[in-house]
UniProtKB/TrEMBL annotation:
PANTHER family: F-BOX DOMAIN-CONTAINING PROTEIN (PTHR35828:SF46), OS08G0203800 PROTEIN-RELATED (PTHR35828). Gene3D superfamilies: 1.20.1280.50. SMART domains: FBOX (SM00256). It holds the Pfam family F-box. Residues 4-57 form the F-box domain. InterPro entries: F-box-like_dom_sf (IPR036047), F-box_dom (IPR001810). It comes from Lolium multiflorum. This is F-box domain-containing protein.
Length: 410
């Protein structure tokens, strides 16, 4: 009878060195290694191992940028990324969730906003009766889905901002209240609802700690409506920006039919809920130049405005000064599209929450990774598995150490 010899497990420090070399080459392979056996899972799930590969002080090396989109005909929103860390395929929103209750509630849902690993989606209108809106908040890292109570209102357009626990306690150092209402995490949702016309705009707020929607707050008073023409808030999903405890939307208006449009920011204080409208003090000859698109973003902790102008195909960055009113042009670069023809007439500007990565999507859904310093543009449509982004794609960044810890904790 032949004798059998059991294999001797490698010491943890040896396994650690092997897996560190794997992670330096391919993060997706590291994840597959981690689910091979309990020993490897314990090594990878150890926070010291994750931080050794992704140091906290490094400039966001642990974040991966992708997009949640709802391409026509798909049952679930899809996660699409030029970085193949989750494998060479598109993933449905459901693949990130442990369970969605009730089942199939997210079929044909539309992504609206994302921040800190949280994603807000709008549930399909055919599930509701009358004038009402239903939203859900998905925690991509924890794999949970919280369906919010219906919001009774007439909806023509809807734009949202999602606020995390970190947003709500960073100003005064106090901890946000842990929800006792059945929700899986603390969050706040700000919903900007446009009714019958652009000036019929109301703000609603929802907190998981209270589990109720606030009363509507009109965004424009009568003075704004009387003295302006074409007043509106731009409700593109990627244009709700959180900076220093305030959620900002970009708006535009004109003083009459002939004048060039002016821009303003509409801000909502995360802590107090107070609102403010502030005109962007940028020279009129700069804002009046023909442009493809405009977007608020955060650069080095300051609120910034990105403007893609037709003349010379330039991307201008304006940064708000310390007084909160004046704006300075801090960067102007000439974009260098790839050799193949691209259509810049309708351009979506998509930026990373922390990494500063910048993507542009044209009218045909082709996606270009853009260097904000040099202006070089790389077509990454093929890298996104032949996927083209719709006009409503929502960018989201996920922190790899947090994802590993939530999926591999032992």
């Amino acid at each position: 009878m032949e004798e059998t010899t059991e294999a001797t497990p490698l010491p943890d420090d040896v396994v650690r060195e092997i897996l560190l070399r794997v992670s330096a080459v391919d993060v997706a392979t590291l994840f597959r290694c981690a689910v091979t056996c309990k020993q490897w899972r314990a090594v990878v799930a150890d926070l010291s191992f994750l931080r050794q590969h992704w140091p906290e002080k490094a400039p966001h090396p642990s974040s991966v940028l992708g997009f949640f989109d709802s391409p026509y005909g798909n049952q679930w929103p899809l996660f699409i990324s030029p970085e193949k860390v989750l494998g060479a395929r598109r993933r449905s929103l459901g693949s990130f969730l442990v369970a969605a209750a009730p089942p199939d509630i997210l079929n044909r849902a539309v992504p609206l906003a994302a921040r800190g690993g949280l994603l807000v989606v709008r549930l399909p209108a055919w599930r509701l009766a009358g004038d009402s809106l239903r939203l859900a908040v998905c925690d991509i890292l924890k794999g949970t889905c919280d369906v919010l109570p219906p919001l009774q209102c007439r909806v023509s357009q809807c734009g949202c901002a999602i606020l995390t626990r970190e947003d709500c306690c960073s100003l005064d150092g106090q901890q946000a209240q842990t929800p006792s209402t059945g929700y899986s995490a603390f969050f706040k949702v700000l919903a900007m609802i446009v009714g019958t016309n652009d000036q019929d705009c109301n703000l609603y707020a929802f907190s998981s700690s209270q589990a109720t929607w606030s009363e509507p707050r009109k965004c424009f008073d009568q003075v704004w409506q009387r003295d302006t023409f074409g007043l509106r808030i731009i409700l593109r999903p990627s244009w709700a920006t959180v900076c220093r405890g305030v959620a900002y939307w970009l708006g535009s208006y004109s003083t009459d039919h002939r004048s060039s449009p002016r821009c303003f920011t509409f801000g909502v204080n995360v802590k107090t809920g107070e609102t403010s409208s502030t005109e962007l003090l940028i020279p009129a000859n700069q804002l009046s130049l023909p442009s493809f698109g405009r977007m608020l973003s955060v650069a080095d902790g300051n609120l910034s405005l990105l403007i893609l102008q037709k003349e010379g195909l330039q991307l201008h960055t304006w940064t708000r000064g310390d007084d909160g009113r004046t704006w300075l042009r801090t960067r102007a670069i000439e974009l260098k599209p790839p050799k193949q023809v691209w259509d810049p007439v309708h351009v979506s500007i998509l930026s990373g929450e922390k990494s500063g990565a910048l993507f542009m999507s044209d009218a045909y859904g082709f996606v270009y990774k853009t260097d904000p310093e040099k202006g070089a543009m790389q077509d990454v449509t093929e890298e996104m598995f032949h996927a083209r982004l719709s006009f409503w794609a929502v960018p989201i960044e996920m922190d790899w150490p947090a994802l590993f810890m939530s999926r591999l904790a032992v």
